[in-house]
Amino acid sequence: MKIAELLQKKMTLSFEVFPPKNEVPLDGILETLSRLYRFKPDFISCTYGAGGSNKGRHVEVCNAVHKSGNVIMPHFTCIGNSRDDIKESLKGYVDMGVENMLALRGDFPAGWEGTRGDFSYADEKAGT
Questions:
Q1: What does the DSSP assignment read for the chain?
Q2: I want to staple 49 with a disulfide (CB 3.0 to 4.6 A). Which of 44, 53, 62, 110 is the partner?
């Protein structure tokens, strides 16, 4: 279900989760998610680390939520991503079955100036 349509119909309940660092097992967040599912959220959003620092874990958590039958809304930033990186990542989410995305510019990681990517803001078009 498209979250934009859902928001027009009713008040919603959602949760936001942050994927663990690469060296931390996923067991903790998966257990937390299973407890959150009991509240029957309308969707769950998953944050995206500064500069894509947790990109792999982000995809794993989003996939787990989607496979559970819950609606996932991944966050996605343009920080540190080229046009081609963004297209490839978005295709991966679409292939996973994701229908919703929260596009953000994102925060600059410590010491960064500028996005170090092809876009400065989330509302710029990637083109085809």
A1: --HHHHHHHS---EEEE-PPPTTS-SHHHHHHHHHHHTT--SEEEE---GGGTTHHHHHHHHHHHHHTT--EEEEEE-TT--HHHHHHHHHHHHHHT----EEE--PPPTT--S-SSS-SSTTS----
A2: 53
pLDDT digits (tens, 9 = 90+) for 37-85: 999 999 999 987 655 566 778 899 999 999 999 999 999 887 777 888 8
Walk across the sheet containing 43-46 and list its strands: 14-17, 43-46, 72-77, 102-104
Residue 46 bridge partners (DSSP): 17, 74
Hey, where are the domains in the chain?
26-104
Q: Give dist(CA 58, CA 83) in Å, integer.
A: 19
This prediction has a pTM of: 0.82
Residues with a known catalytic role: 16
